[in-house]
Amino acid sequence: MSYLYRVYGFNLACEFPLPELDGSIIPENSPADVSIRKGSLGFADLKSVKDNIAQSSPEETLLVFPAAGAFRVRQGREILVEPAPRTSETGMIPFILGAVMSILLSQRGLAVLHASCVWMREGAEAFIGHKGQGKSVMVASLAQRGYTVLADDVTAVLQSSDPPQILPASLQIRLLPDALDAFGYDANMLPKVHPVSPKRNWQPPSISKREAFPLHRIYVLTEDNDLSIDLLSPTQAFVELLRHAYLSRWPQITSRSETHFSQIASLANNVPVFRLRRPRQFSLLPQLIEMLENSPKNLSESS
Q1: Do the bridges between strand 69-74 and strand 78-83 make them parallel or antiparallel, or are there none, so unpaired?
Q2: pLDDT computed for residue 143 by the predictor
Q3: CATH number of 112-302
């Protein structure tokens, strides 16, 4: 038996359930574009691999995470997984929908940002930033305001159209208990992201049924004492986008990629990128959202 989901513009069939995805948006017996299945990859011999990459080529990448297992991603169409000893299917899911999915998306020709994304007034708006900068909290706050969440953590950009398009993931949002408490939710009532993680999966009120959304703006989240939005130059934007591209954590992959740097350069030149400075305080989120909502349509020209 396979579980079928629609995510990032393709049909995904998996041998085990992926509760973070929505399987209700596609009919049964639809053909699968991507498959996930279990198999033997020699995890016991691979668990000491440096930087999680045991093998990499343009066609195939083998990733190893000691806490989860081994994952072979091939030709943008197949993910073969071997769980680590005493690791459940649930324990593998954050790795599959995170790092492993980023590899598969890049094999399918997409630019992949370590970003969370939401649909606002003029188009999709993505938020990038270092780990812990509050990307998920930002889109969760906007979801509370009625906006539609498109992706959390892994954002895929299709650049063959003008403007570039975001392919929605229909994912739940992963939040820490303090954020959930600020939004009025009891973390103990929500499922854990991973058995040993404090984060919980939160279902936003609205999930997209559309296939793609034009990418309107990208914000770089930065902690500061004051609230401000500043337009970055194309050079500054390239540096930030490269820093927060998912594949940038693995030079052994990007060094063999013919498209990685050109994709980032194209984004920097075709999508406005802003630095969004703000204090890290839940109490200021309503004010921050108002600032985003009231920013002029031509902010890129007036900055």
Answers
A1: antiparallel
A2: 93
A3: 3.40.50
